[in-house]
Design brief:
Chain lengths: 159, 103
């Protein structure tokens, strides 16, 4: 009898919790999905830098000195966690993308920068091996790029 | 449901600096398990940050972002006490939203 009571408590408790969560608004299925911009599948699955650039509509970027890597190491000991920060002094930056040349899919991240947000983002990436890392900045309709070589002493893709 | 994010938002002059630490496996789809089977990809695809209902950053990510992703950025405006909301959506359709108060 005791065992059955436990079961009732468990199922009852679970259902109430779920209902309560929905009521408070913690669980809003669909809402967040609707807000987020579409994910550029072709660009993220591209196998080379050129393909990824084409899929992003950013082919033939110009080299620029106005893009800087901040808090990015020259040598990363652990390829699974490589800090990469990109900062640009250009005006009207619309987006920043990070590409890693020798990863299976070079395109790592694309950040859309709305007006009022500073063109500086920092994140951490995985690198399979030592490679050039490209920072792509779209500013006022034009595309600029800067690169930096990061040496990896331990691969980050389970190798 | 996924574990909560750690979000810190600090007012620096007339700007707000936001730092987010998310809890996510970020499987690349390249790794193999002990049986030699490929572990399916599972990673965050979209991240949006909003302040006062206005989007201050949106990002698309690939699987090459590190496990338990870190993200920091800065936007103009934001007063102490305002709320900053960060939402992510992964490739399985799972999503999580967390909120922090600007300090």
């Amino acid at each position: 009898m005791d065992a059955r009571r436990r079961d009732v408590l468990k199922t009852g408790g679970g259902a109430t919790l779920l209902a309560a969560l929905t009521a408070v608004g913690w669980l809003k299925p669909g809402e967040a999905l609707a807000q987020a911009p579409a994910w550029n599948k072709a660009a993220f699955e591209a196998k080379t830098i050129d393909e990824a650039l084409k899929a992003l509509g950013s082919a033939g970027p110009a080299q620029s000195k106005d893009i800087a890597f901040v808090s990015t190491p020259d040598i990363a000991e652990n390829g699974a966690v490589v800090p990469v920060g990109v900062s640009s002094s250009m005006p009207k930056v619309e987006s920043i993308a990070i590409l890693i040349e020798k990863n299976p899919s070079p395109l790592t991240a694309v950040f859309a920068i709305p007006a009022g947000t500073e063109p500086t983002v920092t994140t951490r990436v995985k690198m399979g091996q030592s490679s050039n890392v490209y920072a792509l900045v779209r500013s006022d309709g034009k595309v600029f790029v800067a690169s930096k070589e990061i040496k990896v002493t331990l691969g980050g893709c389970g190798g | 449901m996924a574990d909560p994010m750690k979000i810190r938002a600090n007012a620096v002059g007339d700007a707000t600096e936001v730092k987010v630490l998310m809890n996510h496996e970020m499987e690349t789809g390249q790794r193999k398990d002990a049986q030699g089977k490929t572990v399916p990809a599972w990673f965050i695809q979209n991240v949006t940050a909003a302040w006062n209902g206005k989007t201050v950053l949106s990002a698309q990510w690939g699987p090459a972002i590190s496990k338990n992703p870190f993200l920091s950025f800065k936007f103009k405006g934001g007063a102490k006490g305002d709320k900053v909301q960060v939402t992510w959506v992964d490739n399985k359709g799972e999503t999580r939203t967390d909120e922090a108060t600007i300090a």
